[in-house]
């Protein structure tokens, strides 16, 4: 008889050891280089041509994990991980992932796991209130902000009333459709628009002001230009907390344009949205009542392990009209209000609400607020230390937990030598990352190379952030 797991004895023993391994890992993560030093192909070369025929005990696999796999890991759970936006794990999130895997529940329909659907509904209302978002928003958890923005743009396209769902976009006369976002919007907006058939030429990048915020006057002008040329404006995506600098697009003015022009207003707050759990950052939401859809990623800055991205919308009817398709084998007789499969592309869905619930409940809102406040405080302190130096320039106003700076080199006349500054900044970044003591990434702003520090790990202390200064 071929039963997969013969008993729980081996699992139980290995499981206890693995929890110890995880606790030791988190306690001692600082002894690892943040950025893995392996060369391409080095990890793959350690593995044979195929899996074992007879199976191997967990002990042997954990030994392989430590010797063959861990060396090729870049430690996102390291308190000196300052690159991109950290995806912050936490002990509560890790335990929740264990339970999620144990249940292995699929929440495609309410009845395929009522707890999955109902906890998702409850936690997203809790989160909405905790972030100070308006009442009346419907929420759904998906894997990433990229997918959530894609879903929102699909709904925006459906809301045009062109029966694109029924008749498609080819073989008939349609005006060219337009999506607007700032030149600093995340690439996921353009990618979503490409996948939905707007075409690269249908994505209009609006110029930003000197603080990297979308210019509402330029948005209004672009829409007017497009209308005059026969195009149909469909959606505007405003970013609250851009990827490069955490700049915040002026939502009230953008919302006024969107309302006047009758276009869908999407708000990408994937990173900075989580900060509003701290009430003093709620100014971020000024103008949010006008948003048709909003994305916030608890897996970026709310200590929930990847993947967990929330899409809120005040127009769930449109999302449903866009995506609901119920074949016979998925029809149900219950009167559940929500079958989440109706609000997106995927049918099967993980129990992600369990980790968001466990993180919010275990730490409590007060502790989450305190950690977020600390992160912003560290970023402010770093920016203030950097501005004391005459060989360093901040490339953007310090915002939330992000600091962007460069090293400047001057010529004999005292003017900034752009080429030499770029070389010096890029050399500085390489030196920091090669040290293994921290990991920072870069951006380019108005053609200037900048070193970007984004703080977001729950274990980060000032002493980790101060490592940036040690390299100057
Ligand atoms: C502002 C913003 N939006 C969207 C994304 C995409 O996030 P995800 O990896 O969840 O798709 C990012 C990623 O850093 C981001 O910074």
What does this entry look like structurally?
The longest helix has 35 residues, at 353-387. Strand 10 (441-445) and strand 11 form a beta hairpin. By secondary structure, this protein is an alpha/beta fold. The protein has a 7-stranded mixed sheet with strand order 1-7-6-5-4-2-3, with helices on both faces. The mean pLDDT is 96. Helix 5 (145-158) packs across helix 7. The chain has helices at 9-27, 58-69, 91-103, 114-131, 145-158, 164-167, 187-195, 216-228, 251-261, 298-301, 316-323, 353-387, 418-434, 462-465, 467-470; strands at residues 138-142, 177-182, 203-206, 232-239, 264-268, 293-296, 309-313, 392-394, 402-407, 441-445, 448-454. Bound molecules: pyridoxal-5'-phosphate.
Low-pLDDT segments? none
Q: Could you give the count of β-strands?
A: 11
Main sheet attributes: strand count, strand direction, barrel closure: 7 strands, mixed
The fraction of residues in strands falls at 5-15%
The dominant shape is: globular
Which percent range fits the helix content? Answer: 25-40%
Give average pLDDT, whole number: 96
Q: Briefly note the structural class of the backbone.
A: alpha/beta
Listed once per kind, the bound small molecules are: pyridoxal-5'-phosphate
């Amino acid at each position: 008889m071929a039963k997969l797991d013969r008993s729980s004895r081996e699992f139980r023993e290995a499981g206890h050891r693995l929890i110890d391994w995880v606790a030791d890992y988190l306690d001692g993560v600082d002894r690892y280089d943040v950025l893995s030093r392996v060369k391409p192909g080095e990890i793959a070369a350690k593995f044979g041509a195929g899996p074992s025929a007879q199976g191997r005990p967990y002990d042997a696999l954990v030994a392989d994990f430590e010797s063959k796999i861990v060396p090729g890991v870049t430690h996102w759970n390291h308190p000196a991980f300052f690159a991109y936006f950290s995806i912050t794990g936490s002990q509560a999130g890790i335990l929740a992932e264990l339970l999620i895997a144990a249940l292995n529940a699929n929440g495609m329909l309410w009845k395929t796991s009522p707890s999955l659907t109902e906890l998702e509904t409850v936690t997203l209302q809790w989160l909405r209130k905790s972030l100070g978002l308006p009442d009346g928003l419907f929420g759904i958890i998906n894997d990433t902000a990229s997918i959530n923005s894609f879903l929102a743009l699909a709904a925006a396209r459906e809301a045009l009333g062109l029966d694109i769902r029924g008749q498609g976009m080819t073989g008939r006369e349609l005006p060219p459709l337009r999506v607007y976002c700032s030149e600093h919007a995340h690439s996921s907006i353009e990618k979503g628009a490409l996948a939905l058939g707007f075409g690269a030429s249908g994505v209009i990048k609006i110029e930003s002001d000197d603080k990297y915020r979308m210019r509402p006057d330029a948005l209004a002008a672009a829409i007017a230009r497009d209308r005059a040329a026969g195009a149909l404006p469909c959606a505007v995506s405003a970013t609250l907390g851009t990827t490069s600098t955490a700049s915040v697009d002026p939502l009230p003015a953008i919302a006024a344009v969107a309302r006047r022009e009758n276009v869908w207003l999407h708000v990408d707050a994937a990173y900075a949205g989580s900060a509003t759990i701290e009430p003093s950052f709620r100014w971020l939401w000024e103008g949010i009542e006008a948003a048709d859809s909003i994305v916030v990623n608890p897996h970026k800055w709310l200590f929930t392990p990847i993947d967990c991205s929330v899409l809120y919308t005040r127009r769930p009817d449109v999302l449903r009209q866009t995506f609901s398709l119920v074949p016979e084998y998925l029809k149900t007789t219950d009167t559940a209000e929500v079958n989440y499969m109706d609000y997106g592309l995927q049918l099967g869905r993980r129990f992600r609400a369990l980790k968001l619930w466990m993180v919010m409940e275990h730490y409590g809102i007060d502790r989450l607020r305190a950690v977020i406040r600390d992160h912003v405080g560290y970023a402010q302190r770093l920016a203030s230390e950097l501005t004391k130096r005459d060989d360093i320039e901040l490339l953007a106003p310090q915002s939330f937990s992000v600091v962007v700076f460069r090293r400047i080199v001057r010529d004999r006349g005292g003017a900034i030598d752009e080429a030499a500054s770029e070389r010096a900044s890029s050399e500085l970044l390489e030196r920091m990352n090669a040290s293994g003591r921290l990991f920072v990434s870069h951006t380019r702003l108005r053609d200037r190379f900048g070193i970007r520090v984004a703080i977001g790990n729950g274990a980060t202390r000032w002493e980790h952030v101060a490592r940036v200064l040690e390299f100057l």
